[in-house]
What we know:
- By secondary structure, this protein is an alpha+beta fold.
- Helices cover about 30% and strands about 25% of the residues.
- About 45% of the residues are buried.
Amino acid sequence: MTPYRCRARTPVFVLGLLVLSAAPARALQDPLAGLDAYIEAGMRAWNVPGLAIAVVKDDSVIFARGYGVREVGKPDKVDPHTIFAIGSSTKPITAAAVAMLVDAGSIAWDDPATRYLPRLQLSDPYVTRELTVLDLLTHRSGLPRGDLMWIAGEFDREELLHRVRFLEPAWSFRSRFGYQNLMYLAAGEVIPAVTGLSWDEFVRARIFAPLGMSRSSTTIRALEGQTNVAVPHAEIEGTVRPVRWRDAGNVGPAGSVNSSVLDMAQWIRMNLNEGSYRGRALLEPGTVQAMFSPQTVVRREGGWATMAPESRFMAYGIGWFLNDHRGRKVVQHGGNLDGMHALVGMIPDERLGVVILTNLNPHNLTYALMYRIFDAYLGAEPVDWSARMLAARDSLRARQRARAAEAARARAAGTRPSLPLDAYVGRYADRVNGDIVVIREGDSLVLRWGPRQDADLNHWHHDTFEAVWRDPGFLSIFGRSQVTFTLDVRGRVDRVAIPAVGDFERVDDPAT
Length: 512
């Protein structure tokens, strides 16, 4: 494969009679030697159909290539111009857009969010009053994710922000890190409140255009008529299958940008140059430094720890995850959307950055490649990060299978639903997530949530059913869900509970 752009990377030294240590000897080599083979082997191991990668060093794009195919079973190859969804790698872009308003003096980080969003209300009046613009961007609101509100429903941005008031806090305000897409939506909505331009328009005019990111967009509608576009894929029951593009426009500032690695490399160049691009300042250097500075501590637990396997600290800045690696500060943000996974990572002190876009979700090959490249430039001993992270993934899957087996053993055999299936048919409502409808199809029940999220309800035991989502992308993210109906004192179905989602109260008359 031929790189898009590559300059000589091996420095010329005038050497005397020196005895070189092992680390300097490695530094004399091309840091990216062997990367092609490592990527291709990693893609096979992780079942990734297509991947594009770009590396930035000292304000130059020194490596940009595509690997694999845009869609399984079809010959079209991925190249550096191929468009992918970048998911939550959008968040630093939103943070930069808000930071531009801070630089202009139009807003301040510590301004109350309600100054610009007077209709924004949280369940706690104190939090509503004290919530700042900075809080919106640093994942410390205390709210749970509430993601199904925007994933499954048809709510627009205004309705999503209205429903935030119904989310009960998961922990105290500013007490800990809690990843929150809806607060990023709120941060993006500060922009039209101040400028009169939508978040989409502002990002196009103030970020994409000056950086020459001509293949980047904020909506899947912009992909109509485009040809070099990756198809999302998910691994479902051991098979990698294409899934539909997720329209994340209703929560756009949190994750709806689509881009290519060459476009995203220009974004990296601007960040590594402390806000300047080709002599033009988009952000003040001090603002970029603040965005790269810790704001909220991130506990090294669960999935967050896999992003930084050898770090001693993790934090969230303003739009960026921060961790240490080999004594250097890493600034990075991943992104996941149905069938797509992205990663943007930088070591600012080395003026080194990498962007990796793939058409499979979820997986950690991107982090393995990032650390492999970082290690090479830092002259560190090579580590097979891909094998290490793959082993961790396989261990997690084994634990998940064990829990599923335990749940199956707890299943009560020989039970039947308390009532005829028609008694469960009806509409159920939740203040946060909207309505779900249970319908009858032949001898089975189907749960309908939003325009496309249908699940077959297979009887599990008693009045609990297993929901098997028909949308492969939805199934790959949320798996199979236990759905339990409850009866009131009259023996009529009055609500349905979906764990980790909520309780839906019946809103039609079960007698009719």
